[in-house]
Design a protein that fits this description.
homotetramer; alpha+beta; Thiol Ester Dehydrase, Chain A; five-stranded antiparallel sheet; 37% strand
Chain lengths: 136, 136, 136, 136
């Protein structure tokens, strides 16, 4: 398994009048988790797009266990559970820094050739970068 | 079953550089579906909050079947599948107006006493308004 | 002068923990004002882009007079003050429906050839559609 | 004058279909500039609110000079131009890290007693923390 941590400060822009982080704004956190975990693997999403690969989200599952509040420093733990072929599965666990888990989520992304508009294989470089984490 | 339709125009603010509606912005559509469907039942969420009832989202499942594009006129069909007790289950089906289904989602919300910070029963008025749709 | 009204319901997604509409979310209202006023003039922004014209915002001035609250029905009055050549000047006045003005703003947009990446003239059709409102 | 720098990575959530950062999303950057500059002065906005002081935005001026793109690392330079009494004036200059200035903005905020709903004086602590930067 591959794991990665990144931190996020909850902003006023993220809150709603319940004083919670608005439920739709967690999608930004997953995005940050995905992109920064791929970056540590040497896989820059901006370059992937330039090379003609898009990675739209196919599905999303979110579990809101406790609210996130303004100015909370959140830890986003992102996990990749298998070496991707045409799809990439991420899991996310969000906790208050040094504290309890408040949120869990999963997403499926597909590798898409932006030219053909069709699914394509994961880039070799990403598969190679991930393989050490999954070797027997 | 209770069903409700409301329409939503995709704005530039909703798009991302893939030219798709950003995956996190669908949460706004579900919110509109929920609130406007409850309004037709005579249940105004703003009043509910004033009466001390909050309805945070507990979980969310989204399935992105086809992208939504800028200026698309979307139909949000919202369904309530059972008379709520302490939780309220919504399902959403989003389609381009007059066209194909592009997105499906489900959310669970809990009725929460904002004073006690604890789950509470659905308002009688909401249960009464929904009962005709579920009578045998 | 050309004037146009459109209505907007404040959503939970728009609020912040002060219970106000977050100051950055007014940009969505101006966008709705612009796009819907142009639509009534027969000028669809989605088609403009397909014809190779972009309209990025060059500057913005906002005056927050009173807060907008959750579920407020806002009236967005959009004004075009002159027939555009390479730039388009909009003014916005936002009020609670049937009530007081709570917000004022101005934006300048430029017509940009998306191919050349350079400013270009306003489409003839838009100039023609606006001319009756500015005839002597 | 007091100056402060903080960095921000442009996210997919921030982009629009022009491939630019959406004009309304800069408000988040100003917020980050404000809050992080105040934090370095020992003034935590979250604590201010708990002490009954809100700081809503009264006005905003933005100048979009060049677009910000996906994955750009932006430098937000925040300046406080005078010791606040009942209002706090911020200026922002946003540049690509190590590069050109792409955006400038100004905001006015007011100190508001959340209990009385009326303007109040800036906290002594903030005035004291700022005074070394403005001594003759």
């Amino acid at each position: 398994m591959f794991k990665h941590d990144v931190f996020y400060r909850v902003r006023y822009a993220d809150t709603d009048q319940m004083r919670f982080m608005y439920y739709g704004n967690y999608a930004r956190l997953y995005e940050i988790g995905r992109v920064e975990s791929l970056r540590t693997l040497g896989c820059h999403y901006a370059e992937l797009e330039k090379a003609g690969i898009w990675m739209p989200v196919l599905d999303l599952q979110s579990r809101y266990m406790k609210p996130a509040f303004y100015d909370d420093e959140l830890r986003i733990e992102t996990r990749i559970l298998s070496i991707p072929t045409t799809r990439l599965f991420f899991e996310y666990e969000i906790s208050r820094a040094g504290g309890e888990v408040i949120h869990q989520a999963k997403t499926t992304l597909v590798f898409l050739s932006s030219e053909k508009g069709r699914p394509c294989r994961a880039p070799d470089r990403l598969q190679a970068a991930l393989s050490p984490f999954f070797s027997v």
